[in-house]
Sequence to fold (374 residues):
Amino acid sequence: MTTSNSPPPNIDMTELRRKRRGRNIAMVLVLAGLCALFYAITIVKLAKF
Amino acid sequence: MSQTTASIEQNERGEKSPLSSLPGPLGHADGEAEVRDWIALLKPRVMSLVVFSGLIGLLVAPGHLHPVLGFTAVLCIAVAAGACGAINMWYDRDIDAVMRRTVNRPIPAGRIEAGSALGYGITLAIGSIIVMGLAVNLVAAAVLALSVAFYVFVYTMWLKRRTPQNIVIGGAAGAFPPVIGWAAVTGSVDLMAVIMFMIIFIWTPPHFWSLALWANDDYRRAGVPMMPVIRGARATRKLIVGYTLLLVPFTLAPWAIGFSGPIYGVSALLLGAGFLVSVIRVARDRQDGEGVSLTNDAPARAAFKYSIVYLFVLFGALAVDRLTG
Fold:
């Protein structure tokens, strides 16, 4: 069990940042896609009236 | 069961990386997950068949649905199917850890925490049902909700570990997508939707038992009562042939009731003949006295692959027939 006072293990921070960056980009793309989809749905629904 | 638990503990000990011992966010297993791990939780290969059958239900249904809403309906079906996969991986993380086929999945491999996978699955499931209800219609949303509940509660939590009939009854969960696609267009569930449901429902046992034959050791080790584990390989081969014999005439129902024309009818006949040949090879596989294959289950592997192509082409033919007829 490692405590907060113990020395940090050998972590590849570059790899960690790369993974985090990949997740962030994916999240942006998903949110942008949802915005576009909900906008398109709204337009289609409004067009019915 | 104790063997299973021990294997999980061993796996977790063996797979944890230095990051998991750190306090705070860095120590969270999810910090190691890549985007592809979160995608893997959605079981994309299973999702592809679900999306395809849902799209076919949408295309062959009488009526019109705006392309944006049609896309939304298929997206909701895909996301809900993926959510089921994530919840299934959360629930089955103990048996996944002892099966060669599943040991590298994100949860047993320690790349994603079980609780995160569950939250991810629940969020996607609820979100997809709400969007389906608001954007498409309530009937499609209700059938989508029913299919998610059936897969999670009836198949995954109730049947899978209790009875060799697990995938016979649980297969209904995978049969819902064309019904949802149909309901998205028509706002109802009609005879043809039920026929498409029944085709996938009857197709599932020979498809899944073909896989279970060559993954038998894995299922036995994990304690999952698949048919080959409980009844033996020989009896399972007979059941595979039996269900296929039942399936082939059933696939002719759309032609018989006049819903589709000769393109689909002839395709169903030829594809069905191919499926029958494939499963008869499974039944006649060289085997020892206890029914264990002496060919490393080569015919069962071939039948499994054929069954996937079979359903894709069969439903594809139905769509082509309807759209060109």
Observations:
- Chain A has a mean pLDDT of 83.
- Chain A has one domain: 13-49.
- Residues 13-49 of chain A form one domain.
